[in-house]
Amino acid sequence: MDNELWVAPLGVAIPPSAKEPTDVVPYAHYLTAKQKSQIISAFQIDAYDMAAEYAWKKAMVKLKETIATLGMKFIGEMLERNDIDESSPIENVLTDHTTIQLAEQLGVIGSTASLKLKHANELITHFFSKDADTEIDYTDAFIIVKSSIQYILGEQDISIAIEFSRFRERILSETLKITDPQVNQLINSSLFYLRTVNTILLSSIKNDKGAKLEHALGNLNMLIEEIWPNIGDNDKWNIGTAYRDVTASGNFIAASGLKNALLKVNGFDYVPENLRSVTFKSTAKELLETHFAFNNFYNEPAVIRKLANLGTTIPAPALIECFQAYLAVYLGNGYGVSTVAAKVAEEQLSKIIKERWQYYFSKVIQNDEIILQKINSIRQIDRFKNLLESNDLTDFTGLPKNVQGLYNAILNSQYSRARDFANSLYFSLNITMKKV
Fold this sequence. Notes:
Layout: H1 21-24, H2 33-44, H3 48-68, H4 72-78, H5 90-93, H6 96-105, H7 111-127, H8 138-153, H9 162-173, H10 181-187, H11 191-207, H12 210-227, H13 233-248, H14 252-264, H15 276-291, H16 296-308, H17 319-331, H18 339-350, H19 354-364, H20 369-374, H21 378-390, H22 401-411, H23 415-428
Helix pairs in contact: 2-3, 3-6, 3-8, 6-7, 7-8, 11-12, 11-13, 12-14, 13-14, 15-16, 15-17, 16-18, 17-18, 22-23
């Protein structure tokens, strides 16, 4: 039996020999004959920007519509955004980057598809922004079009994995037993899926009443001891934050159930003390959204100053989000950094004490898909090395094996090894975490 509870599709099989638009575009089964012809014609007249933009927008609209079938309230829970409700238009809620991330977590696309689509998104974001100093060429346009077709437009009807939809319904409509075969599959699934199920249960605990609430609490209490060692600290903070929220709102049934769950794993260290951390977390998320949006180099300085001005001491519950946001801006993307924003990021990262950096490398970076994907180019690896050296962060030992390898490779300017370790850690987020 497959250890994964639900498995993402691999995309349509396009032959490796397909090197021309006329070889690839026919696989876009979602598009009409006229739409396919328009993409091919754009390549033929060297209008590469038109071909790339048209295919990409069609793909993102389709992907967002697919995710929207789960309901906007659920999407808001996945993104930890209270401002999203069922009436929120999905095109106003999800950036392309966030859409790809969610699609991967929900089993709509696989990890390889996610990696390639994020690269295509980076190309689109760069070449269609005011920071671009050249126009998009044939090669980059072809990459965007091929990825859009292979993983999204090649299917007439992509959908949320049937197995995921059924399991989501089960955990909200019945209290499962630890011996249930699907529970066994979940416990042995990748971090992405553990995180998604955790979010589903917490969403129900905070918003539902009656039987649904009872089932969600029962299932969390049944699962928590098994999944606690394998979920990231950020997911643990989410459980602690949910306990704080339901307690404050007077939802005593939910509060009692979450308290029992946290007691089973000595999890009260992850209950936030106050609301200050919420402001840090939301501003860090805003900075990340800006970083992955159009004209990011121009827009990042204002948002990063907003985060930096919140205070010099980052609350513990918000540390992971702030680390991620500051590092993402500091490392930049394949085309460079926002000079002003990167300087602020460097200043803020230099204020973080060594013990917190040790914690980041020991507990966090192996689950940080955004930063792992940023350890990619020679320039980005050199920037990471310079950051560590300038802040006397060069003597960490006893880290998890692959993290130690990544850390050492960065410090020794072993670019290929650093990329290999980062990729290995990233892809490990999508495979089983322990054997049945």
